[in-house]
Amino acid sequence: MTATVVAPAPAVDLDLIVKETYAELSDVLVQYDASGQRHPHDLSASLVGGCTRRAAYAAAEAGGWQPVTPEESVTSFIGTALDDKLMPLLAQRAGGQHHVPLVANVGGLAVHGTADLLDHRGVADGKSVGERRLTKVRELMWPFLSHWYQIAFYTVAARQAGHPAPAMRWIYIDRSTGDREVIALEFTVEALRAVIARAQEIRLWAETDPGAAPRLGPVDPRRPNRSRAIYRGPGRNYTCNACPFLKKCYGQDAEPGVVGAQRNVIHDDADMEAALEAYSQERETATAASDRQAFWADCFVGKPPGIYGRWFYGRTSNNALVGKALSAMSDKQRAAILKEYNQR
Ligand code: SF4
Known about the structure:
The chain is an alpha+beta fold and 344 residues long. The protein has 3 domains: 31-231, Lambda Exonuclease, Chain A; 266-299; 306-342, no CATH class. It has helices spanning 14-35, 45-48, 52-60, 74-94, 131-140, 145-160, 189-208, 238-241, 246-250, 269-300, 331-342, and strands at 97-106, 109-119, 122-129, 167-174, 180-186, 306-308, 311-315, 321-325. Helix 3 (52-60) crosses helix 7. The chain starts with 13 loop residues before the first helix and ends with a helix. Iron/sulfur cluster binds next to helix 3, helix 8 and helix 9.
């Protein structure tokens, strides 16, 4: 038997290797993030489901924007890498197309983007998320609102391009465990109305005064009376931190991640009055919500643990009593609960 000869390795500095590898990784992620940045005037389908003022600035092609510093965004890298690999395979399997450029001409705006997947059932989009967001989606069995608008606009675009696109789909994948949930919704007349109304709202602000557009998200088509999401400025909201119009919107001293520029929202006594009123309303809403939740929790007391329709009522692993949607549990947790309570 011949002895394996291994050449002596040079001396190594492991600390240096770790530092170098970290630096290389950071470089690659920053470069990747920079390569994916869009022009601030790019009115994409993902933008229209977010801040109204941000979308109005884009539609008006407003000046005064600043380049956004690219980040070491591992999550967006993983999300795109997943989509890049997964969507071509899904498209092949379903006889559809992947990464399809689309433009929706609606309400006087041209909203464009690239749909992950388009087949005979309609547009589908892959969303890689963390565990908490996946749980939220399962509880609601509805996509996040910005995701809903994105695919609704794509669906309009697909139909304008001659595809029947009867349904909308969101494929949520937990990027750490691979756990997944698919949400499918019919594209209804109400959905079309919501898309048109959203495009009209953005266009109206873009043509009048984009800087006065509300720092609010879109209306929820299922719950139109619900408060709209507030874009609370730097240090309070990730979208604001990464917004090229941050200084135009919150003042020249606004810096990504730094709370304080919110003070620029108040210019005079009338603004102060409005802010105090909004603060008071929010407090009342939060208190009322917590009171209502406490009321329902009191109603459960003494009731036997078990499965009630799509809900589980009982003790979790940390022994707390909870009411939780079965759909919001992991497959393993749900199987254990179904086994235990169906056997009673
Ligand atoms: S800074 Fe925030 S609130 Fe202002 S336009 Fe940008 S996303 Fe909207």
